[in-house]
Amino acid sequence: MARYPQNLTPAYHAHIYYDAQTLEQARALRKSAGEQFNVQLGRVHEMEVGPHPRWSSQIAFDASQFERLVPWLDANRHGLDILVHGLSGNDLEDHTTHAYWLGNEWPLKLEMFREK
Predict the structure, then answer these.
(1) From the CB of residue 41, how many other CB atoms can be counted at a distance below 10 Å?
(2) What are the structural domains, with CATH classification, of the chain?
(3) What angle do CA 17, 33, 77 make, to 5 degrees?
(4) Are the C-beta atoms of residues 5 and 83 closer than 8 Å to each other?
(5) pLDDT at 116 over 60
(6) Residue 53: what are its φ and ψ, rounded to 5°?
(7) Helix (H) or strand (E) holding 77
(8) pLDDT at 115
(9) How far is CA 54 from the centre of its chain?
(10) What is the rounded radius of gyration, in angstroms, for the C-alpha atoms of the chain?
């Protein structure tokens, strides 16, 4: 069973997952998040990047924004899956122990963190 995100670290990333059919929906969600919450928006990737098994776009935010932004993302994702993870300084733990899902959980490519 999925765990709901908890505000336990000073900073966070939210990765919106999408595909060709939901690309514009994801663009609109990230744009709205940027306008409403003044968060840092990453690039819109139309390929798999890093440990992410789908196309994704990152939103960076801090703990002070967590309690408003995460429920808003959950309420406005309309079927998109979003990985929310803390930034503790340990990439493997951030993408496992400190990782939470809004929507479906996707298996991440964690090998890149284990090789370090």
Answers:
(1) 14
(2) 11-87 (3.30.70.1240)
(3) 45
(4) no
(5) no
(6) -85, 5
(7) none
(8) 66
(9) 12
(10) 13
Report how far residue 75's alpha carbon sits from residue 55's, in angstroms, rounded to the nearest whole number. 21
Residues 11-65 have pLDDT tens digits of 999 999 999 999 999 999 999 999 999 999 999 999 999 999 999 999 999 999 9
Q: What's the predicted TM-score (pTM) here?
A: 0.93
Could you give the CA distance from residue 16 to residue 111 in angstroms, rounded to a whole number? Answer: 21
- Grouping H, G, I as helix, E, B as strand and the rest as coil, residue 113 is helix
- What are the structure tokens assigned to 37, written together? 């919450």
Cα pseudo-dihedral 6, 100, 39, 9, rounded to 10: 40
The single-letter DSSP state of residue 44 is E
Strand locations in 1-116, DSSP E? 11-18, 40-48, 55-62, 81-86, 99-102
What pLDDT score was predicted for residue 28?
Answer: 98
What's the length of the chain?
116
pLDDT of 4 reads: 73
